[in-house]
């Protein structure tokens, strides 16, 4: 419930499209209870946000007094509205309207929600801190979050932390939700799963070690024509294996984050099934296992090198401008997960040569050195000088400086390029490209040719 209250405050700030402050303050005085205050300067809240509030299975209701105090106002209101909600009462008697306070002509908006708890302040701080770190992956740009905790009876116990998305990073203007999601996951990776305050310059001296792919899948879900959007971002990073000081909480496993309606969600069994159903082998990945832990999905790979790490984030939301209510994961959403992840993997392959090659392409590529050696030998041993000159010209080599090693390297690079280009195409569109042709002609051939579905052998035509 406390996380739902914080999420609602984030949404009010996000929808205001103004620079906002969100504060979470935990204070314990001489009394035994802990006062929790969640305030924001976003749009004013409405009672509908709180009517469906319930203690979840993760909330021990006995550790909370069940009384919610609410103060809220919108920019157009002339008063600050006050309510109390008894979360342990029946629906008919749970909300009580209190006397409003005048704003005396001032123009501002915001909300404050307060409740009391009997749990450990250290435990609550740790849980909220982790939740806010996850929220940073969404990179909501106009919100500065301030977490404060203090036991007033213990001198020097005050704890403060400011969470600010993106920092000084330059983003497109305006930045889409997908741009922000990519930026947030990049920061998460560069800070080793947010275990560091800043980017790890030892493991990531430059941005080239991050390979980022993204995809968006959409569907019109119901008779109200709400468009359901599923965004996916995948980052492949390479880190030095000799660095024992830097670590990730889950080691070599791939963390799959799931956000629903701009709030951290739990990867359910249904979403786990969708992740299992993705054709990872088409991208050279062999899934060894998948488990659910700490609201994440953790993927284990059987064939990743030790220096390679994969991170994934999924975000599902309706294209609407109101604070969303709870909704169940549908079959449509599961299908969108598969489509969005596939688009992200395809985006990675398109941007980064040699990344995520299928197992078939990897096998064919392993023959490239021997094949290049054989072809180079045929050319250099030929007694037909015109034939040799034509081959040298097509390969972009000068006849007077051609050596066996240069020839083999050039042919091998072309073979690998052909294999990688062919592997990017859908199965039914794979073609048999020519090795010795102008590069522009080869690209055009890829666009125009379409092979019959079922052919998957890669032929390298010399002429």
Describe the secondary structure blueprint for this structure:
Layout lengths: L1 H15 L3 E9 L5 E7 L7 H4 L15 E7 L5 E8 L8 E3 L3 E2 L7 E8 L3 H15 L7 E9 L7 E6 L12 H14 L19 E11 L6 E12 L15 E7 L8 H8 L10 E7 L2 E6 L6 E11 L12 H21 L7 H7 L2 H13 L4 H11 L8 H21 L14 H10 L15
Parallel strand pairs: 1-8, 12-15
Antiparallel strand pairs: 1-2, 2-7, 3-4, 3-7, 4-5, 4-6, 8-9, 10-11, 11-15, 12-14, 13-14
Helix pairs in contact: 5-6, 8-10
Helix/sheet category: alpha+beta
> In whole angstroms, how far apart are the ends?
68 Å
Low-pLDDT windows of residues: 439-463
- Which radius of gyration do the C-alpha atoms yield? 29 Å
Largest sheet: 9 strands, mixed
Separate helix tally: 11
* Integer average pLDDT: 82
Order of helices and strands: HEEHEEEEEHEEHEEEHEEEHHHHHH
Number of strands: 15
3D shape: elongated
């Amino acid at each position: 419930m406390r996380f739902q209250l914080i999420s609602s405050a984030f949404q009010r700030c996000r929808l205001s499209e103004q620079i906002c402050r969100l504060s979470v303050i935990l204070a314990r005085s001489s009394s035994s209870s802990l006062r929790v205050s969640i305030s924001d300067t976003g749009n004013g809240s409405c009672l509908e946000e709180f009517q469906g509030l319930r203690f979840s299975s993760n909330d021990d209701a006995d550790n909370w007094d069940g009384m919610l105090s609410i103060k809220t106002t919108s920019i157009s209101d002339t008063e600050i509205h006050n309510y109390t909600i008894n979360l342990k009462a029946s629906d008919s008697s749970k909300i009580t309207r209190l006397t409003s306070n005048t704003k005396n002509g001032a123009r501002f908006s915001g909300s404050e929600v307060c409740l009391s708890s009997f749990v450990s302040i250290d435990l609550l701080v740790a849980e909220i801190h982790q939740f806010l770190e996850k929220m940073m992956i969404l990179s909501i740009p106009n919100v500065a979050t301030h977490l404060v905790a203090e036991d007033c009876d213990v001198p020097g116990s005050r704890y403060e932390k400011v969470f600010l998305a993106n920092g000084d990073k330059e983003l497109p203007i305006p930045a889409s939700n997908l741009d922000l999601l990519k930026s947030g996951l990049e920061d998460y990776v560069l800070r080793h799963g947010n275990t560091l305050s800043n980017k790890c310059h030892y493991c990531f001296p430059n941005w080239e070690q991050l390979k980022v792919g993204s995809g968006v899948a959409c569907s019109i879900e119901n008779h109200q024509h709400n468009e359901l959007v599923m965004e996916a971002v995948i980052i492949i990073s390479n880190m030095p294996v000799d660095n024992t000081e830097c670590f990730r909480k889950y080691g070599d496993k791939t963390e799959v984050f799931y956000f629903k309606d701009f709030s951290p969600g739990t990867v359910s069994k249904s979403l786990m099934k969708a992740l299992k159903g993705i054709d990872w082998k088409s991208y050279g990945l062999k899934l060894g296992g998948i488990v659910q832990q700490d609201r994440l999905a953790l993927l284990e790979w059987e064939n990743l090198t030790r220096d390679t790490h994969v991170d994934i984030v999924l975000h599902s939301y309706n294209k609407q401008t109101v604070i969303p209510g709870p909704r169940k994961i549908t079959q449509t959403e599961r299908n969108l997960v598969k489509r969005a992840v596939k688009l992200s993997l395809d985006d990675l392959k398109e941007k980064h040569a040699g990344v995520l090659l299928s197992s078939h392409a990897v096998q064919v590529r392993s023959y490239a050195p021997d094949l290049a050696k054989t072809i180079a030998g045929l050319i250099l041993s030929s007694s037909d000088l015109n034939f040799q000159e034509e081959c040298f010209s097509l390969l972009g080599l000068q006849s007077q400086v051609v050596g066996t090693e240069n020839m083999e390297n050039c042919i091998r690079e072309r073979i690998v390029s052909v294999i990688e280009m062919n592997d990017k195409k859908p199965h039914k569109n794979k073609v048999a490209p020519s090795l010795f042709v102008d590069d522009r002609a080869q690209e055009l051939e890829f666009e125009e040719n379409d092979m019959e579905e079922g052919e998957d052998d890669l032929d390298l035509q010399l002429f």
